[in-house]
Amino acid sequence: MKESSAFLAMHIHRRVARTLLLVGVVMFLGNLTWAADDAITIGIVMPTTGREAKPGLYQKEGIELAIKQINDQGGIMVKEKGKKLPVKTVFYDNGSDSAKAASLVERAMSSDHVTAVIGGYSTALAEAESVMPDRYKIPWLTGGAAATSIYSRGYKYIFGCLSPIALLGSTTAEFLGNLADQGKLKKGLKIALVVENTDHGVDYVAGVQDWIGKHPGYFTVVLNEKFDLGGTDFSGLLQKVKTAKADIFLSDAHLQDYITMQRQYLQAGLHHQVISYGARGPEADARKALGAGTDYILAALWWSDKLPYAQVQKFVADYKQMYNRGPDSWYAATAYDAMRILAKSIEAAGSTDGTKIRDALSKAELKGALIPGGVLKFGANGQAGYPFLVTQNKPEDKVDIVFPKDAATGPPVAPIP
Amino acid sequence: MTATDYLDLLIKSLLLAGIYAAMAVGMTAIYGVMKIVNLAHAGFLMLGAYFAYELFERFHLDPILGAMLALPVFFLFGMAVHWLLVRWLPKSDTPTLASLLLMFGFWLVLQNIGYLVWGNTAYSIFTPRSLASVRFGEISIPKDKLIVFAAAVVSLIVLQIVFARSWFGRSMRSLIQNPYAAAIVGVDDQKTARLSFAVGTAFAGFAGALLAILFPFTPDFGASFQLRAFVIIVLGGLESVSGVALGALILALLETFSINVPLPLYWHGWKFVYLPSSYQPAVSFVLLVVALLVLPKGIAGLLERKWRVA
Amino acid sequence: MNLSSAAGRVKSTLPWLLLIALAVWPSTNPSPNAVRLLFITAVWTTTSLAWNLVGGLAGQVSFGFAVFYGLGSYAAAVMINSGRSPLFAFAGAAAIAALASFFVGLPTFRLRGPYFAIATIGVGEAVRVVMNNLDSTGGASGYRIMEKGAFRQIEHYYYALGLVALAVVIASIVKNSKFGLALRAIKQDQEAAAAVGVNPYFCKLWVHAIAAALTGVAGAVHARYAAFIYPGSEFAFQTSISILLMPVIGGIGTIWGAVLGGVIFGIVEEEFVVRFPNIHLLLYGALLMLIILFEPDGLVGLMRRTMRLLKRWFWSKREDSGSPDADKVLWGRGSVEGRKL
Fold it and tell me: A226 vs B277: CB contact, 8 Å cut-off?
């Protein structure tokens, strides 16, 4: 009997211990909430590990630069509280995983009581995250995701600072059309489209084909292929490109695939009159990896540090001072603008209430923005729209803006020598 | 596609096969002897890549020499890892869940160390050779791929000689065939296991360094190569280096040609279609499943059976 | 009072008490974050219990459960978007996942041990690539679920709670039935089991179907909450690994182990990511390695060993018998994979 009661006690103890552990964990977490009353908390949910790690890091840096400058001025003026409140941040790394990204944004909104969340960076992550803002009535911005599908769902609390990718594609095509008009390219050339199998790639193709459809007689598409991300060997695909005998090679890829594909492209001895990798081109990592192999590659970008605006030069200088290197490509700039327009809207709303800030954001206009055009404004669906730049890598590590004409810093070179 | 185009693709597949074989042989050694599916193989590839990169950046050491240097360094590293972690795993004839998960955990740790030390920049090794190719008319052979292929082939031949001739190689083969019988005959399984793990790690580091010459890499480099290594091991069987080479060849050929060869399809009449490039990864995995079902001992097993019958 | 009936009564009331506690907990007005955490924990615990049936009970280690998770979520997503009720969508998800499990299992269950595991990896990746290319469900861009009506978090919570309760019930029934006995026999020695009249192939297929159905519904419930799914995350190899890590951490083969593993995964992993953004991979990997090296039976095994040690120190008069057979009677297990308890 003694043994059995001990045995019973053991069983009860084990089960009770387990149950108490479970209950304790739940209660502990249920009470883990705190609201900062004397500061504005902004949630930053960005990938700093995984596939999108580099752009995510740059965007985080852009946001933090903006916040530092705001805090140096004392913070954001909130009329409701009658004083300037400093900005605090809560940062979560979503590991480039969309389910985690959505979960972490929800955590920021429900547990950390943030005033707003800046998320992204890529479209897939943003699509998942964009479900949460309307549920919690907390505004969400991104300096990253540009696919139009995110903004066509009727969500009211999401705002995107990037022009649509379809516009990127059609701008590239428009630029090529310009070159044809100038006589640098002949009309009727054939295009090979080789894009990554994501909505980024799909939107890009849609934009290019849209422009071609509207302007008959300029170009025809002879190859339209998609490839899976993280490819190692593109020989088969490049063979298809060779067989298609196109004149222009347009691709849309992430940085690593861009480097791998361009290397194998050059090794295979391929040559086209124009090469473009979508929104990739002047990245420093690519230069290091390909040397002169990046010369004359076109890229359609949302921003370049060569833009002739005063605020751009100031941004580049401030960024260099804070991070000991210049901004790489466009990622940090759009995130910087996103934070600034958010700060402006919080001030305009005069409160930290999500709905009021959301209303202010929909009407907001950031003058002195870094992006082409100098003004950041959101459309009715929450996505900003502004013209793209087309840059071209020139020999000796130079990068020139070649389109639009009024922002150009150098002439376009086509066909590629 | 013209005949020269096919020839060009064939040559490219051969080069790719060499790279794949070098990468898979490390995993084969460990799996064959210890029946451990080394999920940290990708981590070793990544470390080998960064090793070559650091030597290149700091001492301007040619990455091929860096790869050769990786062999002894990673050999010692493999011995250390075995002594620390792997020798505690229970021994078994078939892979245990414990071994799978231990190596997976170790891979996560290696990835994080990679992020902490090198950040998430995509590094690559750029030499004057990187963009150059040897040209024969329409056919182009990239120089660095050729050198990597040569290095891989040489290392495989060396490994095969070690397998066939040395005492160590014979111990390994006996353990692969039947661990109990090997114990009866007097093979020291602990020592052999440790050496096999070290050899496997050494080749993983070597392959990683070679891969660094060809591709850009970040700390999560290696995952896609690891999956391919699975396919190659299954295809090639376990007992010989030539099996691995054969498996790598088949995989490389299939991957490259599957999207360039017209396939007959019946859909409202016979048509010839090209497989869209985005289905390319699926090809290797379907191949894996088919190979597992049809050839349980790999292609080498199939050939063996044929010879034995004769 | 009879020993076994008392222990049995304790065993069977505690889970029900826990269920009731969790069911009435929302009335205490908890924060949405806590509800979210419990929701996610419930979903993961269901997949953990499901995998445990195949991997822990029957001993077939599958690396391809993400296929069923993803197929379930896509099936439910399509059905919800065409206006069906959630329950119908979940049932549909279960049916489709179970059907898929037959397609996967029919060829792969002919393989043994490591070859089966590798084959499941191949199947998982192949399905992912195919779904990535399927334009009718959005392909690589993902698929959005547009549900009419307001979002009620508590409703999702109750669906998840119901699901995990169902999973525990099904797992218990399977484990304690003759079918479960057959599975355990298959795990230990498939030939011997066949010799005593068990049909291994048949049994494996059926347990696989049950597990796949549960996993499919878990995917469906989660998809409805997240409102956006895409192949890169639903069918990812990482998802398959996560699903199998939970029972291993908690204690493979036991039901409470699977539950504990789910809790740890749902709650602890996120805390790692939040508090240690730079080293969360390292911590998670280290945790995994420690568990494998020191306690392959998972946390449940750890608790058992601690209890046994305590018993030896504090109740030294009632020594344990010192024989593995008696240990088996007391603790249900004498050794695991060749190592003594």
Answer: yes
